[in-house]
Amino acid sequence: MNKLNSKKLINAWCLYDWANSAYNLVITSTIFPAYYEAVTRNPENGNTVRFLGRDFVNTALYNYALGFAFIVVSILSPILTSIADTRGNKKNFMRFFCTIGSIACATLYFFAPIETSQGTITLSSQSLHLGIICMVISCIGFWASLVFYNSYLPDLVPESQRDRVSARGFTWGYIGSVLLQIICFVIVFLPEMFGLTTPYEKNYMPARISFVLVAIWWFGFAQIPFRVLPSGNISTVRNKTNVFKAGFLELKKVWQQVKHLPVLKRFLYSFFWYSAGIQTVFLAATQFGAKELHLPTDKLIITIMIIQLVAIPGAIIISRLSEKFGNFKTLIGVVTIWVGLCAGGYFITTDVQFYILGAVVGLVMGGIQSLSRSTYANLMPETKDTASFFSFFDVTEKIALVLGMFSFAYVEELTGSMRNSVLALMVFFFFGLVFLIWTYRTHKKSHQ
User: Fold this and answer.
1) In 3-state terms, the chain is what percent helix, strand and coil (to 5)?
2) Is the dihedral of CA 183, 355, 289, 274 positive or negative?
3) What residues does each domain of the chain span?
4) What are phi and psi of 122, to 5 degrees?
5) Longest Cα pair distance anywhere in the chain, in angstroms?
6) CB 3.0–4.6 Å: which of 104, 157, 274, 287 could bond 134 by disulfide?
7) pTM for the structure as a whole
8) Residue 141's closest CA among 88, 92, 104?
9) CA distances from 368 to 167, 248, 276, 316, 336 (A)
10) What is the pLDDT of residues 272-282, one digit of tens each?
């Protein structure tokens, strides 16, 4: 591996965040969720859609599908990182998942309703299945590539610099994603400029064009880090076990080490719970605004843009707070804010309240993700198998996310309201806060 603190390598690493964060914003958070809700809306039938022979509430199906994607990522991650560690080619796997993810993202262009000769708009079963499948594949590509991306951090900078570089990666990602989002906004809000004049074209083509632009942005900018970043560390001991077993054996080996590191173990308990809440809030925010507050697409997009814009200074501010007060005290404060945000989300009724809540979410969203990643890197023992440790971290996050998404969807189907789903997420944050306080006390005792 190249020497630490190489400016060229650090910038290349951050540029992948610039490339792929457009997917997280446009596809995961803004245009695609709003588009999906619009094309699958069917009030006279209870907003139900039929998928694989079963009827689902449209937004519940969306959340179940995302949950399934994260299950796949959780299973694939240890297998692939095992192969990458033993062959020293984690960049190849990062490139592979980037490629399939961007192709699936571009294919979402064909997820569209059709206009009948009578002028009515209908979504065929084939189109729905295509949209869900491509969404799942693109999600797998995005998150699986991040397993290998995150594992580069300990190899590029020493422990003292990880908080800042991690925050820089998130910041570059936010800036890049906002730039592409602005381009997509121009198409969405001014379709006539691009020759989209009929009602059908105005309502459905801008979003579909945006999906293709995200794919091009993601795949295109990713080629720079793929040229610059090293292939990866080669494990000094090659495991002769079948690679499909070796990855899980690596996770077991990591867990055996974690069990003897009480601070790291308790931090992971905390991370599991609050991460389930964070990711679910981000993934479900647009659906919540559309269904519970009946906000139009433009107001939903404005809210997510507010989140993205304030997340840039938010990540920097939280990084500075961690330098002053320490990582654990800062995380405790931020998770406490998340508990309050869920309580507020249950009661909001207006678009202004939604904007304000979105601004606060943005301030703590990027910062807590960045600080969690760097805190984990700092608590890791000295090891050359960074991909295995970050695979363990990633599997923890994805299993938590599956729990969050499935809980959110199930509570909505059970009670008929997303507001109750938000209360369920507040419980996750509360558990995360309790474990985080426990972690801090353990850490404090160990340094006395």
Assistant:
1) 80, 5, 15
2) positive
3) 7-231+242-446
4) -140, 145
5) 77
6) 104
7) 0.79
8) 104
9) 10, 28, 13, 11, 12
10) 999 999 888 87
SS3 114: strand
Helix (H, G, I), strand (E, B) or coil at 56: strand
What one-letter code names the amino acid at 127?
S
State phi, psi for 152 to the nearest 5 degrees.
-75, -25
- Within 152-261, where are the H helices? 153-156, 162-189, 199-228, 243-258
Residue 13, token pair as written in the block: 């690493």
C-beta atoms surrounding 254 within 10 Å = 22
Helix, strand, or coil (residue 321): helix
Q: Which positions of the chain have pLDDT values less than 70?
A: 1-5, 82-88, 119, 232-244, 384-387, 447-448
The residues with which 57 forms a beta bridge, in sequence order, are: 48
Q: Quote the CA–CA distance of 304 and 22 in Å, as a whole number.
A: 13
The CATH-assigned architecture of domain 7-231+242-446 is: Up-down Bundle (1.20)
Lookup: tokens for 127:
């189109």
**What type of residue is 324?**
K
Find the radius of gyration of the CA atoms of the chain.
Answer: 21
Each residue's pLDDT tens digit, 221-249: 999 999 998 886 644 445 555 666 777 78
Cα–Cα dist 339/320, whole Å: 22
